[in-house]
């Protein structure tokens, strides 16, 4: 005879409650992991330079090498955002460790206020760990009035630690690429002016 058939109704009820609680805890854990996946992935990319994600620093590295690398600048706009977006120059030669400032120019070509936000990466992706930004407009919502033009600076350097990575010995060019995409705002709720008569 099966041992489970010898259980009393109370024992079976406790077993069912235990299984249900375990399933509930598993479901909650999976939901929590889903919410945490994106910030954990972003943290991992920022920390390691994975997928060409540049690093962030508060100050210059302190030493400049004789090695020179060409940094190219790329600008893209996704559909639904009526902006003209371009770097002030297509490329620049920089010494490894030297702090450089380059402006990107944005023009809102529409007759309405628009909001956008930039994402970025560098290529080849293996140099993400060495391309370091001190100041940048990325991941910050940018609100533009109709027809507004704005210069947005990027302050960066190529980390001298690059010279110690044998895999980067042949590196001569890095491309910094930005993509602007629209930020959808919740619809505004029009409030009745104070003192306005209510409807009966």
Distance between the termini: 75 Å
Q: Please name the fourth-level CATH homologous superfamily of the largest domain.
A: Ctag/Cox11
Strand share of the residues? 25-35%
Q: Give start-end ranges of low-pLDDT stretches.
A: 31-52
Count of individual beta strands: 10
What Rg do the Cα atoms give? 27 Å
Write down the CATH class of the largest domain: Mainly Beta
In which order are the strands of the major sheet placed? 1-7-9-5-3
Label the structural class.
alpha+beta
From the coordinates shown, what is the CATH architecture of the largest domain? Answer: Sandwich
* Biggest sheet statistics: 5 strands, mixed
SSE string: HEEEEEEEEEE
User: What's the CATH topology label of the largest domain?
Assistant: Ctag/Cox11 (Pfam 04442)
Q: Return the average pLDDT rounded to an integer.
A: 80
Can you tell me the number of structural domains? Answer: 2
Helix content: 10-25%
Given the structure, what is the number of helices?
A: 1
Short description:
This protein is α+β, with helices and mostly antiparallel strands and 200 residues long. The chain has one helix and ten strands. It folds into two domains: 8-48; 55-182, Ctag/Cox11 (Ctag/Cox11 (Pfam 04442)).
Description:
The chain is 20% helix and 34% strand. The strands form two sheets. The protein has a five-stranded mixed beta sheet. The chain has a five-stranded mixed beta sheet with strand order 4-2-10-6-8, with no helix packed on it. It starts with 8 loop residues before the first helix and ends in an 18-residue tail after the last strand. It has two domains: 8-48; 55-182, Ctag/Cox11 (Pfam 04442). The radius of gyration is 27 Å and the shape is flat. 18% of the residues are buried. It has 200 residues and is of the alpha+beta class.
């Amino acid at each position: 005879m099966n041992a489970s058939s010898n259980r009393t109704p109370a024992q079976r009820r406790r077993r069912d409650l235990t299984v249900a609680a375990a399933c509930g805890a598993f479901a909650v854990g999976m939901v929590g992991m889903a919410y945490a996946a994106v910030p954990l992935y972003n943290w991992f990319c920022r920390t390691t330079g994975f997928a060409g994600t540049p690093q962030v620093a508060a100050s210059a590295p302190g030493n400049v090498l004789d090695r020179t690398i060409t940094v190219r600048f790329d600008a893209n706009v996704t559909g639904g955002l009526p902006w003209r977006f371009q770097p002030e120059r297509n490329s620049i030669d920089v010494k490894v460790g030297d702090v450089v400032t380059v402006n990107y120019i944005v023009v809102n070509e529409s007759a309405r206020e628009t909001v956008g936000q930039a994402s970025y990466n560098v290529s080849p992706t293996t140099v993400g760990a060495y391309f370091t930004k001190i100041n940048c407009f990325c991941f910050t919502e940018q609100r533009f009035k109709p027809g507004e033009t704005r210069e947005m600076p990027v302050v960066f350097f190529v980390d001298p630690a690059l010279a110690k990575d044998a895999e980067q010995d042949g590196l001569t060019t890095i491309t910094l690429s930005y993509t602007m995409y629209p930020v959808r705002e919740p619809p505004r709720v029009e409030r009745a002016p104070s003192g306005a008569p209510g409807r009966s």
